């Protein structure tokens, strides 16, 4: 019978999984890069490499030799099991969002569409459970003239550090009312109802999902001292964990991940060097081997 490593009732499965994960954890972002020749026709070796890398750190980087448009991105992701796209109102007919600074509206309503720094979060933390984002792909068509680097931290590492320090942190973060996001209201009315849910949760297959934002404005946390402490510990880890990866995507490169924690530095475009990123988000996760 399969023992869930995330069960707080017993430590044996958890410790076995944790030790294997930490022993195999990659050292630097470049260790996570797979070169791919044709994104719409991946070889078995390329698929295996990406899956294996995601199995280690919940994300992988790729460098495509071929140019990728949005239809290619959809096809690329489908070969890795990502089919059920989660589109937001800004997405196009493919369900893909185009992230670039709009010269007409350089300070948009949503930070990802501007050039300001983007604080630590997982995607879709404001979504209801029915629209949970389990993975996403960021594909870089063109980097910024300066800045625009990403930082990534595997949410399973955060889980491990917190549980090893105090399992009550995990229990508090798994409370079904741990974090409430108020409704998104514009002059046109309610764009999204308020959502309440846990920070850490398990999907039906027993995989760990994290719902988190480092922003403090308009986030209502459950009033519980141990939850306050857990949040402080997460903030410390996001500041100085030695498991944080940093990488600035170059043209033709992309990031594919099981919705790990991530942040972005601010950036500056120039007349002939402007950041252009395609973002596709999915209900599916990149399958690896169970809890490998
Ligand atoms: Fe994001």
Q: Could you explain the architecture of this structure?
A:
With 292 residues, the protein is α+β, with helices and mostly antiparallel strands. It has a single domain (12-282), classed as Clavaminate synthase-like (Double-stranded beta-helix, 4-Layer Sandwich), CATH 3.60.130.10. Helices cover 24% and strands 25% of the residues. β9 (184-186) and β10 form a beta hairpin. 34% of the residues are buried. The mean pLDDT is 92.
Task: Please write out the topology.
Layout: H1 12-23, E1 33-36, H2 44-57, E2 59-64, H3 70-78, E3 97-99, E4 118-121, E5 135-142, E6 146-147, E7 150-153, H4 155-165, H5 167-173, E8 179-181, E9 184-186, E10 189-192, E11 195-197, E12 200-202, E13 208-210, E14 220-221, H6 225-240, E15 245-247, E16 253-257, E17 261-264, E18 267-268, E19 276-282
Parallel strand pairs: 1-2
Antiparallel strand pairs: 2-16, 3-19, 4-17, 5-16, 5-19, 6-18, 7-15, 7-17, 8-11, 8-14, 9-10, 12-13
Helix pairs in contact: 4-5, 5-6
The structure holds fe (ii) ion.
What is the level 1 CATH name?
Alpha Beta
Order of helices and strands: HEHEHEEEEEHHEEEEEEEHEEEEE
**Main sheet strand line-up:** 1-2-16-5-19-3
CATH superfamily: Clavaminate synthase-like
What is the CATH topology assignment? Answer: Double-stranded beta-helix
The profile of the biggest β sheet is: 6 strands, mixed
- When the domains are counted, the total is 1
Number of strands: 19
Helix content: 10-25%
